[in-house]
Each structure stands twice: as C-alpha cells, then as structure tokens.
Amino acid sequence: xxxxxxxxxxxxxxxxxxxxxxxxxxxxxxxxxxxxxxxxxxxxxxxxxxxxxxxxxxxxxxxxxxxxxxxxxxxxxxxxxxxxxxxxxxxxxxxxxxxxxxxxxxxxxxxxxxxxxxxxxxxxxxxxxxxxxxxxxxxxxxxxxxxxxxxxxxxxxxxxxxxxxxxxxxxxxxxxxxxxxxxxxxxxxxxxxxxxxxxxxxxxxxxxxxxxxxxxxxxxxxxxxxxxxxxxxxxxxxxxxxxxxxxxxxxxxxxxxxxxxxxxxxxxxxxxxxxxxxxxxxxxxxxxxxxxxxxxxxxxxxxxxxxxxxxxxxxxxxxxxxxxxxxxxxxxxxxxxxxxxxxxxxxxxxxxxxxxxxxxxxxxxxxxxxxxxxxxxxxxxxxxxxxxxxxxxxxxxxxxxxxxxxxxxxxxxxxxxxxxxxxxxxxxxxxxxxxxxxxxxxxxxxxxxxxxxxxx
Length: 456
Description:
Helices cover 30% and strands 19% of the residues. By secondary structure, it is an alpha/beta fold. The longest helix has 20 residues, at 279-298.
C-alpha cells in the first residue's frame, strides 16, 4: 500500500509527484503519510498535480511539546547471528583495519596526502583547526577526537603543524586517554623532512594494525548511521522505510543506530518525541529541535527554507513532507539517547544526533559518533562517501541503473511488495565483513565539520 488510509494525495509512480485523490478546498490540509504536509493555497480538484504552486507549509517557530509516549512492539531477536570484525583492545569493534591520518589543522593537508600516497594510509583533508575560538574550536576538536578513537582505524597518525590554535598539545586535552601503540603524533614544524618522518610512523602503525585479525562477534556490536541526501518523492516510500525496517531489526538484535539531520525532523519531530523512552530523553529531543530553530533565527534565516531545488524536482514539496519521509529511516524503535556534536555513541538502540542535513557534515558527525558504516538513501544520486563505508541505497530503479557506479543497493522492488529487509541485512553483514562499497572502491572519503563561531 503506497498511501496511508487518511491521505488525500497519492504518488505518481512515473515521477514521484503527488496528485489529489479528492477535491481539496483552499486552506485544507494536504495529508501524506497520515500527517499534514502543508495546506492548499487554492482549491485543488481531484486528479490535479499537487506541488509548490498550490501548497504552503504549516510550520512556524518554536513550539511547546508534551510528553505522550507511544511505543511499538518490536520483539527482541535472539538469532545468535554474528559477523567477523576486528576487536580492539578496549572492546570496540571495527569493520575495517585501516591506518588513518587525522590532521589537527588544514595547513598540513598536502603533507597528509603525500604520506598517504607513499604508504596507502587514508587521509582526510579539511580546512579547520586554526583561528577558531571557543565552542567553535571545541566542536572541531571533539569531531576529530571521535575520528581518532574510531574502531575502523587500527592505527592513527595525528598530524599537526605546530602553531595552530588546535595544536597537538591542546588537542590531546580533548582527546583524553589513548593507546600510544595505536595513536602517534607528528608536529611538522619540528622536523626537517616531515614527510619522511610521517612515512616512518605510518609504517609502524601498519605493523601494529597487522596484529589484528577478524573474529566472530555478535550482531549487537553493529553501530549504523542513518542518512538521506538528494531525496525524491520515492524516498519516504521505498528507501527510507526499508532502512527503518533494517534499523529495527539491528536494534532488536541488540545493536545501535543513529539518526541525524535535525532540520529534516522539523514537522515530524512529534513522532520521534512520542517514542522517547523516558521524560529525560524527551526533554533532550525538545531542546535538540528548538535549539536548531534558534540557530536559524540568530542568523536571520528562514527556518523552513527547505526542500532543496533537487528535492522539489523529485516531487517533495514542503519540509513537513521531507521530514515525514526522512524520519522513517529510524524505524519504530524507542529513542534512547540524544547526542551532541562529537559525542560518542554509548547506548544500544536508536539515538538522535545533533547536526544539519548537509551531506558531508552529517556523515562526518555520524562517523565521529562511532558508527562503523552509514546507510545513505538517495533518489537523485550522490557519490559522496564518509571515512566509513557509506552504503548508497537508490529509492528508484532508474537511478540504480543509471548510476550503478554510485549505488550499492536498489530499494525500488519494495514498490511491488517485496520488503527487502532480509536482503539488506545480509548485504550489510557482507560490508561489515569486508565487502567494499562503491565509495570505498572509488576512494570517495570526505569529512567536513559544522562551524558557527568566529574566525580570527
């Protein structure tokens, strides 16, 4: 069934756009997914195209919420299912055994690239770490610290320049305890040939990485990030519900999933708040939503300047519609925690993560929280990839065929009643055990960090 019994619009399966199932009067709510996605700005006749020319959002500023929990019965699954991962000395489990070069500052990007080319290590360039102040610098430090601690990296070279605000001594205060066999540091200004020294250190780290072998671990050790980008009218019908079913399945086995993109919760946040496991998590979710709205207001921007032009071309009209489709990636499990930038995932279940919908910032936030892979649904297509395996899930078949070099999994058969939950689960187990995603095959690994503060 493609529509909710309460809906007054349906989807054109040719292009993902909406049309009216009945006459809709001016001012009447447009209902999709059983919830309002805006209101009609003129009379709409049965069968007419319903889009930006005749709908307007219902959304406004900050709201007051009341905790009224609604929980779904999702039985625990004790399947005894395992996958082969790399168990680190602290008990964390990685699904890759790589050596990463993490820069404290953008000034050393090219040096990191030289070392990576010579050794096969992975480096991740970024423009941050210098001339930042206060909370803005702390966000950068926390995200980079999350990267250093990530279990997919068996070894990490932290590469600094020496004069930056986020110099290595300052960064260590945020990083906290570390294993000196696994994490090593290089200040480029202190060496005559910093590239040669970096190559030497990376080779030591690669020797340390070679001491790890894949071993059987329970599925409860999986940590999965949930993301969508370049969404279309199919996203809330095929790809996102599929990822939601997968999320519920992994959580039912004791695993963890993380949902981010706070602005793409606006208009659907009440559904997440109903699933908060207690009052404390509910209040954190309220703050998560309203604080992000305040961020827009501080910068004199329209809170609901969304969807994007590509979203609209693909059939999404209002932010409510986009959000109601977006949150489906979180399935129906309880919300157990709310994380801020740079916070590490600590609880099994579904967590919400602060951050914008911007693709590279969002996948960086998810990686820094400790997810081993990201499930990324898309209806328009995107090649972007995180530092961790980024599974691209096409919401429509045309995209899966046209951009087979980007897409890892086709969700479109769900339109024919095939849930694909088990198929996607088996695929992510293969990825967890080493099968490369398209972003890995092509070497697409990007990071970017949310920035709000002053630059000197």
